[in-house]
Amino acid sequence: ELSRENLDLLLDTINQLAPPPTFVSINSRGIFVTPELLTYLDSKKLAYTIQFILGVESLTTRGREIFGKRNMHKELEDMFAHVDGFNQKNNRAFGIDAGFVFLPEFFTDDRSEHSTIKQGFIDEIKGFIDRYVGKNTPIRINIHPFYQIPELPYESTAGQFDILMEALVEIQPLIHAINE
Question: Left if phi > 0, otherwise alpha if psi is -120 to 50, otherwise beta: which for 151?
């Protein structure tokens, strides 16, 4: 999404840091992560790995409607195919940071349904991993507990934080296994 000039300035400046960072995360959308971009980034011989930040928010029907991302499956499939294929062919490690929002209403209208919410969130992350994440793409899952937005009628998820933490205990080993 950055202009080539801004991207070069950012990456070249970071590349001069001593010591260089281990990785740099770049916020993007799947449609911008193309084989051409990956080839270009690889040609820069950066001293660090690039992770693309992708705001998935939710893959549930309700979540995609709330966040206006009704048709993101093709974008996700293409992005992961490009990155995974490039990494495999070129022995590289471009990665993806996928951001998910934790909102109980994605799974049920009753916030007291502890097990439904927990299992729904676990299933959403597992489904994402199974459907999109290839063997050659390092992945990180960023979880954002829902925060109140004036335009949306949902309350903070602070009261369900225990559910989120229980789900994360089960999700973390899955992510760790993928990245080994």
Answer: alpha
For residue 152, the model assigns a pLDDT of 80
Nearest to 60, CA basis, from 124, 3, 2: 124
Q: Which two tokens stand for residue 85?
A: 């294929």
Residue-wise pLDDT tens digits, 25-73 = 999 888 999 999 999 999 999 999 999 999 999 999 998 888 888 888 9
Q: Is 129 exposed, middle or buried (0-12, 13-18, 19+ CB in 10 A)?
A: middle
Q: Residue 97: which of 153, 65, 166, 144 has the closest Cα? A: 144
Structure tokens at 111: 């916030």
Q: 160 is written with which tokens?
A: 């369900």
